[in-house]
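[Discussion] Sanity-checking designs against the backbone

I'm trying to build intuition for which residues belong where. Below is a structure token string of 218 positions. I'd appreciate it if someone posts a full sequence so I can compare it with mine line by line.
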């Protein structure tokens, strides 16, 4: 085992990661090579002017290849498998050309670049986007953008709500919570439960009246 001597004192360069990486993506990744490659691409993307990374660049990256050497498979095979899993999961978008493969993070910046390259390079053969790519933000993104940080316990509750309620209900309930300055999951859940009991077509006052205000003590 190589011993790490620790981070030196002074100002260090950092690589930002979305909170959703820790609350939703990382718990779902069950392959070490996929996790290493995903983190490596986040790092390259954060410190590169280009919104993509090519497979040939990754195979030539000594740091990445050395980190994959610990896997059961050969590093090149581990890289190929990790990229395929990340594409299937929806973390990466893949564009294949005659001589290489281009990978884009499934972020706003990455999606814009992916769409643009399709318009500017019609001779390239695209790989269809995974089913998870959507213009509609998922419940985790909606919550973090409008309410606040997602804890592991709250992540479980959000997943349960996704199974129980239509996505458009959740989006509208979050919007109502923001409009009435009741930024909490308890308030959002209260709206959803009321709609479930009485129907979403109930009068507006029953969506977010005093009954819901009592759910949250500020």
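Best answer:
Here's mine. Compare freely.
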């Amino acid at each position: 085992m190589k011993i790490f001597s620790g981070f030196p004192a002074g100002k260090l360069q950092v690589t930002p990661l979305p909170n959703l990486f820790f609350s939703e993506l990382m718990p779902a990744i069950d392959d070490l090579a996929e996790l290493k490659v995903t983190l490596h691409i986040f790092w390259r993307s954060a410190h590169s002017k280009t919104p993509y990374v090519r497979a040939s660049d990754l195979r030539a990256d000594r740091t990445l290849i050395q980190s994959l050497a610990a896997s059961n498979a050969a590093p090149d095979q581990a890289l190929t498998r990790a990229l395929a899993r990340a594409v299937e999961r929806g973390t990466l978008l893949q564009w294949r050309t005659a001589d290489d493969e281009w990978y884009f993070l499934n972020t706003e910046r990455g999606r814009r670049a992916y769409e643009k390259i399709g318009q500017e390079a019609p001779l390239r053969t695209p790989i269809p986007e995974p089913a998870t790519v959507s213009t509609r933000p998922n419940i985790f993104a909606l919550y973090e953008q409008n309410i606040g940080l997602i804890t592991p316990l709250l992540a479980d509750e959000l997943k349960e709500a996704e199974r129980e309620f239509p996505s458009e209900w959740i989006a509208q309930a979050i919007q109502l919570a923001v409009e009435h300055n009741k930024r909490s999951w308890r308030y959002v859940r209260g709206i959803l439960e009321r709609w479930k009991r009485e129907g979403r077509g109930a009068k507006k006052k029953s969506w977010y009246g005093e009954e819901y205000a009592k759910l949250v003590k500020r």
